[in-house]
Amino acid sequence: MNYKTKAKILIDEALPYLQKFKNKIMVIKYGGNAMINNELKNSVMKDIAFLKTVGIKPVVIHGGGQEITKEMEKLGTKPIFINGLRVTNKSAIKIIKKVFANINTEIQNNLKKHHVLAKCVYNCMCVIQKNKELGFVGEIKSVNTKKIMHVLAEDKIPVISPLGTMNGQIYNINADIAAMKIAVGLHAVKLTILTNVDGVIEAGKLISHLSIKDARIHISNGVITSGMIPKVEACIEAVQLGCQKAHLINGTVPHSLLFEIFTEKGIGTEVVTNGN
Q: Per the domain annotation, does 10 fall within a domain?
């Protein structure tokens, strides 16, 4: 690509979005297969550092289910899931806290390598117990957005682990739901969930724009299945509750985050209120 082509992309495609999103909050759910190796981690961190550098305000919520499972198995504990949610007893919550602390610190350190500062936000979600069968798994009742805004005011990127508290007890939370609740609470301009597929696929073809109505139909008829269901449901609720845009993108594609934000065609699946 020659310099004229590069300049044209920057001016004609990227500039309108740079102007549109400057000083706006974007919530990014980062986890799963986008965290599997250092090359992918570096790509995502570079994208987030770029967003911060051009005046956008990213807020990062990370996952870590695979790392938790590995750590549990290493310690001789077999993970148990009910309807896709991890049963979390006292020993499991200790493992989860340790794994999340390590992931959160790693994200901060990786962002620092790209010359942007980040900071963990502790205890910003209050929960109730989802049900006794799941143990220490929480359902979010409120988000303390002041804590997150305080970190943004320090000119740092908030990095949040999907943990909540109730009466001083730590509870595990689904990271996609946590990202949605935080995006809504912060009045974010965009919620982007990084996953390991290109988006919602129907008959081998990517659906670029998915209405809430069609998303629910695809869940009921089995087009959207298993781990994609909570991600799509999080996007649906985000849009319904006022988040301007919600996207599912493939975090294993290098710089997919930038393609999604700064190009007209975008990448992945955008959940919208209607089909237009």
A: no
* Domain annotation covers residue 92: yes
Contact 272, 210 (CB under 8 A): yes
Query: Is the Cβ–Cβ distance between 235 and 246 less than 8 Å?
Result: yes
**C-alpha separations of 217 from 19, 210, 223, 225, 229 in Å:** 36, 11, 8, 12, 12
Question: CA 215, CA 200: separation in Å to the nearest integer?
Answer: 9
DSSP state of 187: T
**222 contact partners, CB below 8 Å, separation of at least 6:** none
Please check whether residue 137 is in contact with residue 93, taking contact to mean a CB–CB distance below 8 angstroms.
no
pLDDT tens digit sequence for 159-171: 999 999 999 999 9
Give dist(CA 246, CA 269) in Å, integer.
Answer: 9
Radius of gyration of the chain from Cα atoms? 18
pLDDT tens sequence across 188-219: 999 999 988 888 888 888 888 888 999 998 88
Q: Is the pTM of this model over 0.85?
A: yes
pLDDT of 87-129, one tens digit each?
Answer: 999 999 999 999 999 999 999 999 999 999 999 999 999 999 9
Specify the CATH number for the domain of residue 89: 3.40.1160.10
